Each structure stands twice: as C-alpha cells, then as structure tokens.
C-alpha cells in the first residue's frame, strides 16, 4: 500500500458504507480527502461523522501499524486517550443519580483514609473539583501501581506525595491524576472495579463491541499502534500503565465513540431507548464550571469534564485525547445534531484535526470552525524581563529566557513518560499574540500553541501552556 493511492481495503470500506446506508459518493469523496491529508500530515486516521442521529460518514486511511504494514480500517481500534475522562465522568453522574455519590461532597468523606499532600486540600477537595480540573493536584503524576484490580486503590495511596500545583479551586489546570482519583471514587462507591464498571454502565448498554479498556481486549480486534519520532516510527510501548484507565485508556472506533456522543445528544438514552441517565443530569455536564486561562487551545470553559466552546456562534462541546503516539478528537455541535470523531496514530495530528473538522463543520453544519491563532503582525511591544523565569511542576520545567530582545521557552519534560514522548528539551521561540499571551510551535507541528502568563487570585505568577497551569518558582 502507498499512502497516496486508494487501496483495495479502502474500496471495500466504500462498499461496506453503501451497505450501511451511507452515501457512496460522499464516502468516496471523503476517502480520497482523508487519504490526501494522511499522506501529508499523519500515519493513520479513522473518521466518523454523525448527523441528525445517523452515521453519515465512516472512513479510514493510512497505517494502523506502519512497521507491520497493517492498514487502518473503520473497524480498527485506536486509543481515545483523554476522551475517556468524559466516560468516567458520565458514570460518576449515573452514580450520583443513584444516590451513591454527591459531586459537592469532599472526596475524603467518600474515601476514608485518603491523604493528599496538603491538609486543607485533603479536607476540602470535592468530586466536582476532580471533574473540572480545578483540584490543584498535579496533573501528570504517572506512577505505575501494577496490573492488579487494586491498581486504583494503590494509586490513591501514593497521591500523598504528589505536589499541589495550585491552591484549590483558583484556576484550571488539566489533571490526569484527579481523574484517576475519580475512577477510584466511583469504583469504591459502586463496589465494582473501574474497568468492569465501565462495561456494565456504558459499553454493554450502548451496544459497543469494539470498545474496551485493557490491551488484551484491544488484541481481539485490529489495533492501531502509536508512532513518534523523526522519521515517524512505531512506539516501543502500546499504552500507559493500567491505573491511567479512568483518565485515558479506553480504546474504540469512531462509530462507537459517536454512539456515546449520540447518547449525550439524546439526553441520556441508549440506542434501544433505555434511559441510562436523566436528561437533566446529562445536560448538567455541559454547564460551564471553570474558565480556562488559555481559551485558544482547547476551549473557553470546562463543564463536568466536557470542554465547552463556540464556533461561529454555535455551542460546541468535546474533548481531545493523547497517549503514546496516538491522538483523538471529538466535537459535538448539539444545535446542529452533529458529532465528529477523528482517531489518529502519529504525525502532525493537530493540523490534520483542524483541516478535517473545519471542512466537516462547514459541509454538514454550515458552521465556521474557530480559526487557528497566528502571531500579531506587527509584533506587540513588551518588556522581556517581565516574563523571564523558571516555571515548574512535577513533570515539566518551563524556563523562559531572553534572547536577542525576544523570548525563548525551554521546555523540558521530567516525568516518568519523558523518555517516550520528549526525551530532550525543546527550545521554542515565543511570538506576541495579545498582551501577556504569546504563541509558539513545536518543530514537528504547524499549529501555534498559546503561552499565557497570568496571576491567580491571592497572588502567584503562573504560565498556562498545554492546558496546564505551571507556577513560577524562580
């Protein structure tokens, strides 16, 4: 197979789409377009579009595993990464409706004996804080606690040594750790281990056959492998440690991710009409809870795990996901009854996402997607000394230095996964965008990423980058 020509597998996919009630001409056109984009920006990708309650498009392109020459098909399972967080939060909502959980109850009351690094945090952090990335628990404490069914219980125990990134509730900082703790909360109150809980409350009721949480479940299907490096090559590890499950270990296909999205569009109804969650509790997940300091990367606000935004005056909610060499994107435009899912496994996936979703939103919803940001032209004036310093948290060091009258961000990953995702520091020049907001981009990506300098209530200088809030330490 070449990455620029239609393959026999793609031709079979078009025939299958026709048998599934999809428009063959639409499928063929988008198959060619995805082939073109994957050849330019990625390794492999699978795309699904849901419109007015019907799957209208399902195509895949490129390699599921480039090294083994395994092609991606619509039935290939990809890791959806942090889109998992919405699934975990949805089950938390179900348990709250069952009377087993109160979102505003301190977590320590749910998990007796819980000890976090700060006594006030231990006493006051609530389930809602966990679901809205406002707990302050450092977000990237990837600590392997084994493959046993007690992995989340063991993880909760080691959180006593995980740093507090910011005071409770004062800002938004993306926290995988908080969602892993949320997973422990819901398995504790339900009495059912997290992986099985997801099967019982979501996977089976929604009729999902290609969705799971464990690598041995993915092996039952054609599974995509991540790709990293320059040149892009298959990663040496398929996925993260098991305790990352509630934050990012679901694997699935676009069709089945969109079945989950339709469940939310239908106000908590399963495909067979069974009510799994009340309409009120479902819509509550889309109510803004926390403002995002960086409103350009993901969204302007966080709901109960959903990221909330507007495109062309239209409401949008969704989530992204990143694991080892795989990236996933889900967006829902509820007023257009439109949902789009793109699953990928290597390359400039952010550029691929923007290209695909911009065209899909326009074609199916008549909506103009929020445009990518670009540096100010001409550049804004600023005083470099106001920003120079070291910003650091548990798994990331961000040093801002002055160079030739401008600023450079030296980005160093220091966590357990640094050797896989970024083994060497990156030097990233900063360009002005707005007052106190700069833009930069990685050498392997075309898209600009915001770097926001701000102060939190009560004082304290922070840098918001990659959805994380990092305090100034020097």
Automatic annotation (TrEMBL):
Chain residue ranges for the region called Disordered: 1-22
Pfam families associated with the record: Beta-lactamase
Residues covered by the Beta-lactamase-related domain: 33-349
Superkingdom assignment: Bacteria
Annotated InterPro entries: AmpC-like (IPR050491), Beta-lactam-related (IPR001466), Beta-lactam/transpept-like (IPR012338)
PANTHER family attached to this UniProt entry: BETA-LACTAMASE-RELATED, D-ALANYL-D-ALANINE-CARBOXYPEPTIDASE/ENDOPEPTIDASE AMPH
Protein name per the record: Beta-lactamase family protein
């Amino acid at each position: 197979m070449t990455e620029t020509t239609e393959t026999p597998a793609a031709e079979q996919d078009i025939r299958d789409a026709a048998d599934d009630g999809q428009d063959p001409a639409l499928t063929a056109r988008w198959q060619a377009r995805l082939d073109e984009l994957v050849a330019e920006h990625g390794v492999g990708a699978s795309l699904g579009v849901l419109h007015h309650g019907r799957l209208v498009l399902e195509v895949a392109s490129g390699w599921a595993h480039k090294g083994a020459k395994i092609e991606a098909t619509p039935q290939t399972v990809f890791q959806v990464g942090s889109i998992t967080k919405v699934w975990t939060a949805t089950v938390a909502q179900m348990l709250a409706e069952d009377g087993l959980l109160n979102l505003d109850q301190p977590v320590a009351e749910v998990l007796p004996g819980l000890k976090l690094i700060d006594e006030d945090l231990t006493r006051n952090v609530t389930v809602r804080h966990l679901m809205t990335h406002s707990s302050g628990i450092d977000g990237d404490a990837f600590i392997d606690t084994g493959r046993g069914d007690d992995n989340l219980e063991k993880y909760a125990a080691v959180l006593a040594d995980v740093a507090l990134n910011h005071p409770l509730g004062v800002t938004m900082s993306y926290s995988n750790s908080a969602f892993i703790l949320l997973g422990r909360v819901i398995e504790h109150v339900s009495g059912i281990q997290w992986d099985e809980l997801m099967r019982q409350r979501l996977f089976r009721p929604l009729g999902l056959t290609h969705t799971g949480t464990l690598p041995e479940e993915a092996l039952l299907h054609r599974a995509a492998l991540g790709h990293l490096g320059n040149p892009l090559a298959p990663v040496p590890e398929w996925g993260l440690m098991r305790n990352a499950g509630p934050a990012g270990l679901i694997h699935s296909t676009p069709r089945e991710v969109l079945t989950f999205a339709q469940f939310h569009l239908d106000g908590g109804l399963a495909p067979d009409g069974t009510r799994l969650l009340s309409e009120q509790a479902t819509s509550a997940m889309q109510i803004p809870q926390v403002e995002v300091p960086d409103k350009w990367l993901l969204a302007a606000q966080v709901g109960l795990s959903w990221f909330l935004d507007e495109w062309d005056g239209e409401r949008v909610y969704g989530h992204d996901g990143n694991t080892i060499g795989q990236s996933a994107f889900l967006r829902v435009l509820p007023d257009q009854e439109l949902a789009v899912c793109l699953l990928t496994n290597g390359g400039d996936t952010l550029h691929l996402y923007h290209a695909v979703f911009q065209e899909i939103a326009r074609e199916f919803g008549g909506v103009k997607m929020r445009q990518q940001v670009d540096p100010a032209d001409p550049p804004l004036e600023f005083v470099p000394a106001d920003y120079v310093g070291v910003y650091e948290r548990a798994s990331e060091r961000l040093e801002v230095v002055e160079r030739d009258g401008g600023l450079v961000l030296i980005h160093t990953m220091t966590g357990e996964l640094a050797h896989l995702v970024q083994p060497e520091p990156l030097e990233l020049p900063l360009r002005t965008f707005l007052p106190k907001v700069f833009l930069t981009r990685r050498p392997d990506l075309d898209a600009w990423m915001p770097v926001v300098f701000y102060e939190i209530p009560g004082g304290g200088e922070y840098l918001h980058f990659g959805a994380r809030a990092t305090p100034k330490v020097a």
